[in-house]
Amino acid sequence: MQVILRQIGNCVIRRCDPSDLIPVMEINMKTLPEHYSDYFYESLLSELPEAFLVAEIDGRAIGYIMCKTEYGFSNFKKLGFVKKGHMVSIAVIEQHRKKGIGKAIVEESMNGVKIKKCDEFYLEVRCSNTEGVRLYEKLGFIIRQRLKAYYRDGEDSFLMAIEFDY
Ligand SMILES: CC(C)(COP(=O)(O)OP(=O)(O)OC[C@H]1O[C@@H](n2cnc3c(N)ncnc32)[C@H](O)[C@@H]1OP(=O)(O)O)[C@@H](O)C(=O)NCCC(=O)NCCS
Known about the structure:
By secondary structure, this protein is α+β, with helices and mostly antiparallel strands. It has a single domain, classed as 3-Layer(aba) Sandwich (Aminopeptidase), CATH 3.40.630. It contains four helices and eight strands. The protein has helices spanning 21-31, 38-47, 101-115, 130-138; strands spanning 4-8, 11-15, 53-57, 60-73, 81-92, 120-126, 142-147, 157-163. The chain has an eight-stranded mixed β-sheet. The longest helix is centred in the middle third of the chain and has 15 residues, at 101-115. The radius of gyration is 15 Å and the shape is globular. The structure holds coenzyme A (COA). Residues 31-32, 90-92, 97-103, 125, 129, 131-132, 134-135 line the site of coenzyme A.
């Protein structure tokens, strides 16, 4: 049974199901230049289903977020080794943007990452992606680094991160 995490008008936020992966890949192809193999989507879904979510309207996926967990150096503490949630990809199709769906899926994935007891949550975003940067800043993410030529086309990214208190 699919559990509804949140509802915004007629949009339902719920965990991704294997049968959602094709629509998720289609949204990714339409909205972002970074694409992944089928295996990568499947592995993120089995590794961290708590933070692989879809937004659905009238039975049709219109947005997704997918994340993974990692162990590594803290983005906040000098020499700290921590468990981190990593937001790998997020998108909402253009006609459903600016309705609060992006914010809701990030917040719900944050809850998923906290279920896994991560100390921090981080992401990379193109420096030119002002909508993305603004969204993450509103949710408490802070720009911690600028990663030179992070993307294939040579653009830099901001590494943004948030630290959790339990
Ligand atoms: C980044 C992205 C996921 C944001 O999704 P979204 O659903 O539009 O996000 P939200 O609706 O929560 O917030 C976006 C804006 O809409 C505004 N908004 C939210 N609800 C609103 C409403 N009911 N009425 C009017 N505006 C609203 C928010 O305040 C926000 O405005 P701001 O940017 O001026 O602060 C989306 O733009 C996207 O898919 N972009 C392409 C892919 C991408 O860049 N992914 C991120 C890569 S790191």
